[in-house]
Amino acid sequence: MRNATSMLGVLLVAFFIVVAICAPFLAPPSYGDPYQIPRSGWSVTPQPPSAQNPFGTTEGQYDIYYGVVWGTRTAFRVGLIVIGFALTIGMTIGTLAAYFGGWIDELLMRITDIFLAFPFLVGVIVLVTILGPGLNHVMLAMIIFYWMTFARLIRGSILQVKENQYVMAAVALGAPGYGIISRHLIPNSIYPIIIQVSMDMATVPLLAAALSFLGLGAPVGYADWGQLVAFSRNWIISSNGGNPFQFWYTIFFPGITIVLYALGWNLLGDTLRDILDPKMLI
Amino acid sequence: MKEIEGNVLTEKSKDQKKFQKAEILLEVKNLKKYFPIKAGVFRSTVGWVKAVDDVSFYIKKGETLGLVGESGCGKTTVGQTILRLIEPTGGHVFYNNVDLFKLSKGQMKKYRSKLQMIFQDPYGSLDPRMRVKDIIAEGLKYAGMKNRKERYEKVRDYMQRVGVSPTYMNRFPHEFSGGQRQRIGIARALVLNPELIVADEAVSALDASVQAQVLNLLDDLQQEFHLTYLFIAHNLSVVRHVSDRVVVMYLGKVVEIANKHEIFSDPLHPYTKALLSANPIPDPTVKRKDRIILQGDVPSPANPPSGCRFHTRCWLAQPICAQEEPKLEEVHPGHFVACHFWKNLEDQND
C-alpha cells in the first residue's frame, strides 16, 4: 500500500464487505424477511439510542442499527447488479464499436448518444414510474441509463490501444478477431474501467439511496440507507423548542454510513488509479 | 549456393550468381495503397494520399531485398500491405504463385505463419501486459499448437537461438533493453518457421553497437533457417551490409532496382545518386566534392508532381520529365530504372 489514504480506502471497503457478510450475526433478523427493518412500536417520534436500539429508532420506530447493517447488503447488491449489467452492456457495445469502426461504430455511438441525452435521474424516475416502484425496477432503470459511461470509456480506450504496433503484430501472427480483443485490446484498456467501477460502487448506491429518499425505491421499512435518511427528513432540526438537534441520531448514523461507504470506494478508486498505471507495474 | 563454392570468383560476380537460379518466392505486381483524406463536418473524402502507387518487384528465395527511401516514401506501407496488415487498394502479391490479395481473411490466416514481420519499434510492438513466453508463443497458439507445454518448450528453444536467456521467459517486456526486445520480436516471428520475414526498420530504433549485433543475428538466422528477407530501412550503410538486391523508392514509386553492388557503384537514377551521396563516410579525412544537395522538400503524396515524381528536385530534369512518367525498365540484366535520362547518369558514372 502506498500511503495512509489508500490504506484507509481499503480498510473502509473491507469493513463494509465484512458488515455485509456478517449482517445476520451483527443484527439477527427476528422474523420473516430479513431486509424488513424490525419496529419497536408505532409511535412517530424517534427514540434515542438505548441498549435495545444501539443507534436509536427513527420515525415509525424502525431500528436504525438494523437498517444500517442490512442496508449495507442492499448497497452492495444494488452496486454489483447495476454496475455488473451496465458494464457488460457498455463493454460489449464500446468494444464492438471501437474494434469494427466504420458504420458499426457510428450506429452504436449514436444509440449511446440517444441514451445519454436523457438526464439520468429524470430518465430513471420516468421509467420507474412506468414500471412501478420497487428495488428491482429501480435497478433495471438504472442499468438502462448507466451503461453509456462504460461504453464511451472502453471505446475511447480501445481506439487508443488499437493503434499500438503489438496489435498489428498480433494480426501478423494470425490472431482472429476475438483473440485480438480478448488478449490485447481488453487487457490493455480495462484499467480506466476498473477505476471507474470502483468510483461507481460509491455513486450507484448513493443514486439508489436518492431514489429511495424520493420514495421510488424500496418499499417502506426495507433496509436501505436512502430510506433511513428519508425517514429522518422531518427530524433533522426539531421544531418543538428545546434542543434543535434532539433527534441527531436519525440523520447521523445513516448519513455517516453513506459518507464512509462512498469515501472508501473513492479512496480505493484513487489507489487503483495509482497502482494500475502500467508504468508502475513491476 | 553450393554450386559456387570452391570457385574463385570476385565478390561481385559471386553475389550476382548466387541467386540467378533461385526461384521467385514473392512477386509484387502493381501494388497500390491510397489513403483517403477526410475533411469537413461530414468527413467526406476530398482526396487520396497515394502512399504506394504502382509498385512492382520480386524477391527470390533465400535473398535479402533491401527497400530504401526517405521517410514517407511508402516503404513501410509496402511491407504492411504485402502481409495484408493493411488492405491494399489494388495490385497483386504472389507468394508461391498464390495471389495473397485474392484470399479471404480466413484463407489468409493459413499463410500468416509463413510470412512474418519484425517491427520497427521494439517498445511498441510487444504487448506490455503479456509475459515474454506468451508473446513468443502467441503465434503458435493461433497456428494450432494446442499443448501449452510444447509451446513453451519451443519458446525456450527460440529464445536461446536469438540470444535471450530462457530464464527470462516469465518477465514482462519493459524489463528488457531495446536490443533484447528486438530479439524477442525476432523470436516471435521465427518460432512460426516462416519463409519470408519483412523486417521493417528492424534496427533503426537501436543504437549502433546493438544494431550490428541484431544484424549479425538476422544474418546467422538466415543461414540457419534459409530465410528470405524484405529489409526495409532508410539507413544505406545497413542496407549495404545486409542486402543482396536493393529497391529504391521515392514518393510511392519504385525508381530503381538493382543488385547492391550496382546500386552503390553505378546508380542510374538521379534520386539514388543523391541518396547515396548523402550517406556519411565514416572517415573525417575524406573531403567530399561530389555531394548532391537536393533542393526543396519531398512533395506531398496527396498531390504528387506530374510526370516523373522526382522532376521538381532533379538536376537533370527536362520538360519531358514533367509530362511523361518514365516506365520502370530493365536497362541491364537485373537492373531496373525509371528515368528518362539514365544514360546521362551512366556516362557520368564512368
List the helices and strands and how they pair.
The complex is a heterodimer of chains A (282) and B (350).
Chain A: H1 4-21, H2 23-26, H3 64-100, H4 102-116, H5 120-131, H6 135-144, H7 147-162, H8 165-172, H9 177-189, H10 191-213, H11 225-232, H12 248-275
Helix pairs in contact in A: 1-3, 1-12, 3-4, 3-6, 3-7, 3-10, 3-12, 5-6, 7-9, 10-11, 10-12, 11-12
Chain B: H1 11-18, E1 24-39, E2 44-60, E3 64-68, H2 75-82, E4 90-95, E5 98-99, H3 105-112, E6 115-118, H4 132-142, H5 148-162, H6 178-190, E7 196-200, H7 208-225, E8 228-232, H8 236-242, E9 245-250, E10 253-259, H9 260-265, H10 270-277, H11 319-323, E11 329-332, E12 335-337, H12 342-349
Parallel strand pairs in B: 3-8, 3-9, 6-7, 7-8
Antiparallel strand pairs in B: 1-2, 1-4, 4-5, 9-10, 10-12, 11-12
Helix pairs in contact in B: 4-5, 4-6, 5-6, 6-7
Q: Give the count of helical stretches of chain B.
A: 12
Instruction: Tell me about the largest β-sheet of chain A.
Output: none
CATH superfamily of chain A: MetI-like
Q: Which architecture of the domain at 23-114 and 232-281 and 288-350 in chain B per CATH?
A: 3-Layer(aba) Sandwich
CATH topology value of chain A = MetI-like fold
CATH topology tier name of the domain at 23-114 and 232-281 and 288-350 in chain B: Rossmann fold
For this structure, the quaternary state is heterodimer
CA gyration radius of chain A, whole angstroms: 22 Å
Biggest interface, chains and residue tallies = A-B, 21 and 28 residues
Low-confidence stretches of chain A: none
| Residue fraction in strands of chain B | 15-25%
User: Domains counted in the coordinates of chain A: how many?
Assistant: 1
Mean pLDDT of chain B: 86
Secondary structure class of chain B reads alpha/beta
Q: Percent of residues of chain A in beta strands? A: under 5%
User: How far apart lie the N and C ends of chain B?
Assistant: 32 Å
**What best-fitting shape of chain A do the alpha-carbon axes yield?**
elongated
CATH class of the domain at 23-114 and 232-281 and 288-350 in chain B: Alpha Beta
